[in-house]
Structure formats: structure tokens, C-alpha cells
Amino acid sequence: MSGVETVSVRVRVNGEPREALVEPRTLLVEFLRENLNLTGTHIGCDTTYCGACTVLLNGRTVKSCTLFAPMADGGEITTVEGLSTNGALHPVQQAFAECHGLQCGYCTPGLLLSTVHLLNKTAKPTDKQIRKAIAGNTCRCTGYQNILKAIRMAADEMGKR
Amino acid sequence: MLAGGQSLIPLMKMRLARPTALIDINFVPGLSGIQSHNGELRFGALARHTDVEMSEAVATIPILHDCAAGIADVQVRNQGTIGGSLAEADPSGDWGATLLTLETSLQCTGPQGERSIRLEDFIKDAYTTVLAHDELVRGITVKKPPRNSGGAYQAFKRSAPVYATASAAVQLTLEGKDICKDIRVVLGCVGLTAIRAKKAEDELRGKKIDGKTIQRAAEAAREAAEPYSDMRGSADYKRALVAALVKRALGIALRRARGERVEAGHEYVGR
Questions:
Q1: In CATH, B8-13+31-143 is 3.30.465.10
Q2: Which residues of chain B are within 8 Å of residue A48 when distances are taken between CB atoms?
Q3: Chain B residues touching residue A73 (CB < 8 angstroms)
Q4: I need a labelling partner for B195 at 20 to 30 A (CA). Which of A115, A141, B80, B98 fits?
Q5: Considering only alpha carbons, which residue of chain B is nearest residue A128?
Q6: Tell me: the pLDDT tens digits for B176-203?
Q7: ipTM of the complex, rounded to two decimals
Q8: CATH number corresponding to A91-160
């Protein structure tokens, strides 16, 4: 076998330009975790179901286990590591902490980004809109009630700014 | 050909698809617009389901919004494309059933040039279309239905990210208040392709739409379904479900044809 073919992927992740040579079949989540060492983005099901791997790509949420890294080339990515500013939690993170919107925390990075995406588009979401917005994020611990509380609190907090 | 990848990448992970080479068309410019032109809606193949959901032009044809707004979940809708969905021809796909109720054609491009293929001629079998290996779907054209027309797409699924267990798409045109001038009824997930339930249409075309004729159409739809038993349900269950969905879709389509605004679409637990 000759050497493995690689392509260069250049993206901005949490505001920083990042670049790596990867096999074209590398998934975006693998690229983030293994090439860029950003392990906050989780792999849950690896079947496009659970949403633990959710990140923002050019302002929209995607499941990073269901994109090849080269598909994101030139793009702007936000992962959970990019939510806080100078050590201060993002209002969505703060609300999840205060409402206990998590137990084991595995699904939390994805839920945080789905919530950020929702609140960027819809300042005062109805409960129906909230449920629809997180329908692609599975949590096996909480039963979702505290997650809903957290999202309502984050919406209120962000509305005050 | 790799568009949104929301079906192809999972299929590759399961080794159900093993392409030796992939061409990523996501960076090809001019393939993602949605335009209203001359009584037609024109979708670029790379229009994402979210783009369709948010499009003002699409809002005038509620059945398209029903479909786009309920496919899988937000993340998948942000990435998956209308062209990719049709070219994959999954029998459980939402777009096939929805667009078969309208005059839909696909603009396909290859080394031999461009050709336009009607959707009913495009889908041959489960996961099989008439596309040649060196051809791709460039765009989709949908003729706008007349004014006194209404449609609805109803799909039932166990949770948001999964394919529906059964679905029903209806587009009808009224004459006066309740006479059905024309109608199409299409069933999804209950056969190797989406199924046009022509006998169900015959129960309504030219007749008054009321509880009785709707019931007869639903029965005919139940007969037209060719479901398999699988993890989503038994064949009998799916027949019962698809009949119920046709009934609901007919009711919503009728109200919309009369000018009423009705919110509808996919149903799932926790919605």
C-alpha cells in the first residue's frame, strides 16, 4: 500500500484559526477531538441519533459525527470550549448549572449548543419551540424537566442583556 | 456524490454503502437557492431542509413546510438536503411522498447534458433511481397548486431523529366548498417506494368530501399499503396507522383548501 492520502482542513474553531492534515474520511468530531484535542465534544451513539456531538458550524447546529471534516473546510465552528468568556460561564451554561439541567453530563455539550442556537434565533421561545429545538439531543439521566427549566432561565437571562 | 451526508454517512458507517470515491458537491456554488418563478418553486439540490422550512416562498404551499419542518431533528435539517433525500430514494424518506402529491420534476446533469425527469419516473425502487452513475440532481421544480387547493403531510415517528413508521401526503383542489375537483394521496414508509393510493383518490375525486367519503378513502389507502413488519411495527399496525394518517391529512388539507391556517406535520413522543 502506498501512503494514506490526506487533505488539509482549515477552519476557525472558537475564533482561532486551526488546521490539520487528515484522511478525507475523518469525521468532524474525530478531527475536533483527536487532531485539535478539543475533547469537550462527545461521541455518544455515532449513528446521528443522540446529539452529544452537536457543534455550531457557520452558526447552525450539526451533528459532528455525521460530517466528514473536509466538508467543514473554511467554516466557523463553535464547540462547548468556546462558550465561556475569560472564565465566566455563558448564560446557558450558568442556567444548566443552577437548574441542575444535567446529571452525568455526557449529553450536556450538545444540549448547550442546541440551546445557544435556539436562543440566537428565538429570544423568547415557547415551551413547544424549546422541545422542538432539543428533539435531536438525547438525555438518559434527567427526564428533561430540569433541562427545560434551564433553557427557560437562560432565555430570561439573555433577554435582560 | 456527497451532499448533506445525513443518510450517506450513516450508511457508510454501517458498511451498507462502500463507495470507492466520493465527490463532495457542498462547495459547488449556485445549488442551494429557493426561487419562486412563473408559478413554480425551484429548489437547488443543496437547499437544506432548514432553508425550505424557513423559506417565505415555501410557506405558500403548506404541505412542503409540514415536511421540511419535521424531518429528523434540527441538526439533521440544518445539514440534510432536498436533492440528496430524493436521490437516495429511501422508501421512508419524507420528500418522496410529499412531492409526489404535486407536479414535481428533477433537473439532472451529466456528461450527456441536462434532462428533466418527472418525480414519478425518477424513483424506480427502494434506494434506486433512474440517475446514471455520472449524473447528479441539480435542482427540483415544483408547480404551485391552484388557489383553492390545500395539502397536508402527516408522519408518525417514535422519536424525532428516526424515520417515520408511516406517513401520508394529500393535496386536494376544491370546487365550491366541499366538492373534490382533484386529489392526490401518497403513502410513505409502507412499501418499497412511496405509493400513490389511486383508489383512495377515486373515492373522493368528483365527490363531496365528508366523513363518509373520507372513511372510504382511508379504507382504500389501507388496502393500497404494502408494508413489511419490522422493528417499527407489524404490517397490520402500519396499515391501521397509515389509514388514520390519511384521514387526518384529508381533514387538514380540506381546512387549508378553504383558506384556514392549520399547523401540522410530524407527530412524535415528547413533541
A1: yes
A2: 6, 9-10, 72, 76, 161
A3: 27
A4: B80
A5: B271
A6: 999 999 999 999 999 999 999 999 999 9
A7: 0.96
A8: 1.10.150.120
